[in-house]
Amino acid sequence: MDIWIDADACPKPIKEILFRAAERVKTSLILVANQPMQAPASRYIRSMVVAAGMDVADDKIVELLQPGDLVITADIPLAAQVVDKGGHALNPRGELYDKDNIRERLAMRDLMDELRGSGIDTGGPPPFSKQDRTAFANQLDRFLASHPK
Fold this sequence. Notes:
6-stranded mixed β-sheet
């Protein structure tokens, strides 16, 4: 199992948790972004820079991921593609997407996008918090324990 990070928008505290986890469980961690990303020197961690553009990083992740891989992303359409390909998707706030919940999340995302497109202010997600970081770390630990390398 590899862990892929949709790294352009991933919060720094989440990347740090993932760096430590990759070392702890000796699993390959790949940051995919359209700009160079800082990562600690490690035999398990690498960065992949893709061209700038809409969904270029997402497309590269979907192209390269294998069934059973884990993708860290807040991008619901990417998470849906990952689940459809047999992967697992975890958002930075600790929600694990699967076949049972991804369609509902995608429908809600599309509805909110339509509302915003028609001029309705839907607000945005709350600021990233310490509780979000803890929820992510706990869900990641549960996932890694139940999906050994």
